[in-house]
Amino acid sequence: MRPKVLLNFGPHVYDQWVTPQSWARLESFAEPVGRDRTDPYTESQLIEALEGVAGVMSQGSLIAHLPREVLQHADTLRLIGLWSDNMGHELDYEAARERGIKVVDTSNVGSHQPVAEWVLALTLACLRNLGEITRRMIDRTERQAVALNDDFVNGELTGKRVGLVGFGHIGRRLLELLAPFRVDLKVCDPFLAQTVIDEHGIHTADLDDVIQHAEILIIQVPHTPTTGGMIGRRELDLMCKGGILISCCRGPVIQSDALIEKLQRNEIIAGLDVFDPEPIPKDSPIRDLPNAIISPHIAWYAPAAFPRYFDTMVDEFERFFRREPLQFELTPQLYAQRNT
Prior knowledge:
This protein is α/β, with parallel strands linked by helices. Helix content is 36%, strand content 15%. It contains 14 helices and 11 strands. A 6-stranded parallel sheet has the order 7-6-8-9-10-11, with helices on both faces. A 5-stranded parallel sheet has the order 2-1-3-4-5. It is elongated, with a radius of gyration of 22 Å.
């Protein structure tokens, strides 16, 4: 008998992320239930729905939270899969651990490729001062062979000094994309195991060292209590004059007022896919700064890649039910890192 897996998906997941092939693969080893559900569960309804269920795949609002009061009734539940970028807050993690329920989180696995590519794109755009050049083209005031960026780090990416803050799925894909450019890379990520450092052959350093090393500073960390506001006036002032700042992670990681002041002084150029707050206010001065290349949080948005989100979760559930090692388990150590 195939184990039952309860699905917490909105219509967009079925429409854009679930392919016939991936659905058939899920059905080959599990019995998915709840596909026709459209109304959010009450607590009593959720307790009833979890009877006889071995797994939950969650990316939606039908199940707002899996609290201890629900999990204590889920006698057959063995695996919970998340991909909502909420750091495991969708459930009572400690209650799940106490009951021996494994939790996997594939939140950034599906998006790591398009985000890493957009980081690279913004980097190249900043090196050529594309924001200012595009404005001049629109105004019909451009001049050939004049990039107007002599005061910024400019030209080729090849051989530049790059500082990367954060080395998760996105950072590791970015490392691959940067390889042909032979950059001089330093990485700051205090949570990296030595085995990961050795495997990827990276040079690690503390945050100040990485900032001062970089001509191009790339911030790619999750938003946690620790990383909120981690790049402020002090850190921005450590950047080299004319340096490039790239961020496609979460807006609150960089202190917005300090960033705008730095840009207004024309001391750096920035490529930003995220900001605090979002959406960017209509009257925000950052919209008018030619040395800020901004996009509306679209780095992850690559519709052709959407099926990867569901495929990755199906892969993880298949490993679990075949008693193979999990690749994306939300371990106590990782959960603690995300919530401190």
